[in-house]
Design brief:
- The complex is a heterodimer of chains A (207) and B (129).
- Chain A has 207 residues and is of the alpha/beta class.
- In chain A, a hairpin with a 5-residue loop joins strand 4 (71-77) and strand 5.
- Chain A has two domains: 2-88, Rossmann fold, CATH 3.40.50; 98-206, no CATH class.
- Chain A contains five helices and eight strands; from the N terminus they run βαββαββαβααββ.
- By secondary structure, chain B is α/β, with parallel strands linked by helices.
- Chain B folds into two domains: 4-95; 97-129.
- Chain B contains three helices and five strands, in the order βαβαβββα.
- Chain B has helices at 12-24, 38-44, 101-128, and strands at 4-7, 29-32, 50-55, 76-82, 87-96.
- The N and C termini of chain B lie far apart (46 Å).
- Classes of the chains: A alpha/beta (207), B alpha/beta (129).
- Strand 5 of chain A pairs antiparallel with strand 5 (87-96) of chain B, so a sheet runs across the interface.
Amino acid sequence: MISVLVMANDSLLADAIVSMLAEEIDLDVIRLTHRELGSGDHQSVVIVVDEGKPEDESIKVADLFRDRSTLLVIMISLKSRDTYIYESYQLANPRMERVIQIVRESSRMNLKKKVEEDVNMGAFKKVNMTRQIQIWPRTYHPVGHLFGNVQALNFDDRLLTKAGMLSFKEMAALFHSFFLHYLGRKNWRTVTRLNSTGRSTGFNRRG
Amino acid sequence: MIRVMVMANDSLLVDVIASILAVQIGPDVLQLTYRLPPNIYDAIRDPRSIVIVIDEGGSENEPIKVPDSFRVDSPLLLIKASLKTMNMDIYEGYQLTRPGMEQVIELVRDFSRTYLRKKNEEAVTWALN
């Protein structure tokens, strides 16, 4: 059984969350209000329903992590309707490769989130205007930069030729796949291309 | 660009770690010491930065405030490496945009499967030995 602590004030939403969790056979749900949390409560999974109360009543994530090595905190914000995930865990005597892997995975997640934000902002609606594309050139390959630029050109051409045929979702997926293609590469740089006339005007590199 | 900040006292080991990260991750690797004024740390801190803290132990007057580095609205990876215990504590924060309840439950199960079960197994192994 996975013991889950739900911290929320009495509300209909909190009732719903607790009842949905309690329906799962492998979850053992404990419910507390913010004021009832004591020092003896050491569940490894904590779900916090943040109702946007004043500072002194709200839960501070830092307090939950004090003296805890393995903890998952899921903070559901009713104000922003977003969910924040905080994880802490311990690795015993890891190698440097593992550290690099963790850093890369985290940066990949951040980049993916940034792409999703860009998609949500509708940045792709202006296909014929100046765009900024982040690319990850292959730095280990002697023609790495060239490869990256060629890929960017191919992507642009593909986008331009299909711009009239693709739906917004398809274009978002296309752009997303382009980003994923370059994940794991280092030294990304911003490439700005003006393609109002449909031809390349070169790259402005900013290091 | 992902900024990696390595916080430690000046030592050869930290130089090596920072150099490896600069080669493998990217050139934006900053090496910081605890003696810097707090406002400098705040000025260079990026919401998407990754912080690696090297805990050399025995620095009672220079405590490492790991939880303070968490911010609700900042995706952050914080790795605290202890040279004394040879262990690493990983603190990771990220945001999900309007997830469903199924996704939250799956997240709980994944975390439990990956880390809690392993922790229990380690405790049992240690007790048996």
